[in-house]
Amino acid sequence: FVHALKSRAPFNQWRWISELFRAATTYWLGFVGLDGRKVFCGLRASVPFVAVFLIVFVLYSYFAGLRSLVVRRWCGEDCNGVCHWDLVHSIIVLWLGSLILFNYVTTIFRSPGVVLPNNGERVDLPWTSDRAQGGCCCWNATKNVDNEADRVATYGNISTRAFVCQPVDGENDPNEFFPTTDPTTCQ
Questions:
Q1: What are the TM regions of this chain, as residue ranges (predicted)?
Q2: Of 12, 57, 105, 115, which has the maximum CB count within 10 A?
Q3: Residue 164 — φ and ψ, nearest 5°?
């Protein structure tokens, strides 16, 4: 606090609020006998659960309340109980929601992107969600060593490779073709 009081820079209250909150949290966790690092690591493992809950909550809010707004806006009063736009919107919302949930959950529980050691040893270590190595809460991600080795072989040195749009002379071209988001130069 002495630094904040004597500094000529403008006072940033949010920085000090976060510092005080962090200090109070560390103090109280130590006071009750908990290790703060383990508590925060356990909280980090629950982030995917919170994300899935938010997605399900958005889907629920659509079907609980927003759906009636779609019927009122798109069908009006003259639909006589039959509204095809309601069916179209509901199918699209279900499709998008299930697509988001499926891709997110499969990403969480697939192999978490393990980089294998350079000596080629295939050690089967337990990967746990409480160490933030994939998975959610108490469910752990599965590790596929062969897929990880292929991924490292494919993308390992991608930043050092030269990329072109098409071969210069067609034969014996030293450049490697690879899809990338980096800008390419055509020669």
A1: 47-67, 87-105
A2: 105
A3: -135, 165
